[in-house]
Design brief:
With 359 residues, the protein is of the alpha/beta class. Helices cover 43% and strands 12% of the residues. The protein starts with 16 loop residues before the first strand and ends in a 9-residue tail after the last helix. It binds phosphoenolpyruvate and manganese (II) ion.
């Protein structure tokens, strides 16, 4: 296992990685990167960028230089693709991440991209890692499909050793015996990478499953596990995507995924904003129902212990703690207004007979 490396110093406490002016990985809120596997034409990349931005994505992805298994497959638009990514960034304000395949291309890609992607196939291209380390741009380092955790961390060390600590690790699935999923997203290793380094770690459930019908659930699983973000392949018409069509979701499916992650859409569209709020209300309702069930049992315990049902000092302590925890997240008086209502419901549940209180 990796001994003391630059990337393992202060392991377990994630250090933030900034991209552009607006994006910070590892700052507590998941960063979702979305866009097509390949940049295909100007209309495609600009419209997809607009759609994913509206849905709440923080960054745009799109391949200009594509690492393809066959030399006869579409290789990407190259420098023209970089220019189109620049157009999409200009139109949407979204920072861009794109893959660089060759050490010699690093300066050119760094000119157009806010973050460099080192792909799975190049994870141990040491000349490329060194060059990316000297680029002045943050780097997203994908795990090789056959790489161990230790090899992945040492690959990151090549970037860090050049003085570049702006590294985000991306778990994108490893090769296993299972052919049904193209690769197997290895959440355990992604979590281990978070424990063993100070680097933010994100998941790519698109390459990590190879199947679009698994992408949303796998993405939710990765964020529930505590990873710092997602990379999702999105296309306006997934079946027509020139690469990775099978694992690509539509812009509408992507918007639904973002709602399910409670990530706010960046739009003034009233129905979209209301759909986001409705999803959050649904989640709040589930939590409140669980709270009510527990407070019912607390009521029974108080009765058994001969304690008074209403304990104002306990309620005051709850409000104090929440006020501190909320900070400026709610408007002044917001904590009192909301929790006085919640505590009131709990009190009336506790005064009901046990079976009616849901205990
Ligand atoms: C990609 O992100 O489109 C890509 C080629 O990824 P990977 O290197 O993980 O295969
Ligand atoms: Mn792809």
């Amino acid at each position: 296992m990796a001994g003391e490396l630059l990337v393992t110093q202060g392991a377990g406490a994630t250090r933030e990685v900034a991209v552009g002016f607006s994006v910070r990985f590892g700052a507590g809120r998941p960063v979702v990167i979305a866009g097509p596997c390949s940049v295909e034409n100007e209309r495609q990349i600009v419209e997809t960028a607009q759609a994913v931005r509206e849905a709440g994505a923080a960054m745009l992805r799109g391949g200009a230089f594509k690492p393809r298994t066959s030399p006869y497959s579409f290789q990407g638009l190259g420098a023209e693709g970089l220019r189109l990514l620049g157009r999409a960034r200009q139109e949407t304000g979204l920072p861009v991440v794109t893959e660089v395949l060759e050490p010699a291309d690093v300066p050119l890609v760094a000119e157009w991209a806010d973050m460099l992607q080192i792909g799975a196939r190049n994870m141990q291209n040491f000349a490329l890692l060194r060059q990316a380390g000297r680029s002045g741009r943050p780097v997203m380092l994908k795990r090789g499909a056959g790489a161990t955790l230790d090899e992945w961390l040492h690959a990151a060390e090549y970037v860090a050793a050049e003085g570049n600590q702006g590294i985000v690790l991306c778990e994108r699935g490893i090769r296993t015996f299972e052919p049904y999923t193209r690769f197997t997203l290895d959440l355990a290793s992604a979590l281990a990478a978070k424990q063993r380094t100070h680097l933010p770690v994100i998941a790519d459930p698109s390459h990590g499953s190879g199947r679009r019908e698994l992408v949303a659930d796998l993405g939710r699983a990765a964020l529930a596990a505590g990873l710092d973000g997602l990379l999702i392949e999105v296309h306006e018409n997934p079946d027509a995507s020139v690469s990775d069509a099978m694992q690509t979701v539509s812009t509408a499916e992507f918007a639904a995924l973002m709602r399910s992650l409670w990530i706010a859409p960046a739009t003034d569209d009233l129905p979209a904003l209301r759909a986001a709020v409705d999803g959050i209300d649904r989640a709040l309702l589930d939590l409140l129902a669980r709270r009510v069930a527990i407070t019912g049992r607390i009521g029974a315990a108080k009765r058994q212990g001969g304690l008074p049902l209403h304990q104002p000092e306990r309620e005051a302590a709850i409000l104090d703690r929440l006020r501190t925890q909320a900070g400026a997240a709610l408007p002044p008086g917001g904590v009192e207004e909301i929790w006085n209502a919640i505590l009131g419901v709990s009190r009336s549940c506790q005064s009901l007979p046990a079976q009616e209180a849901g205990a």
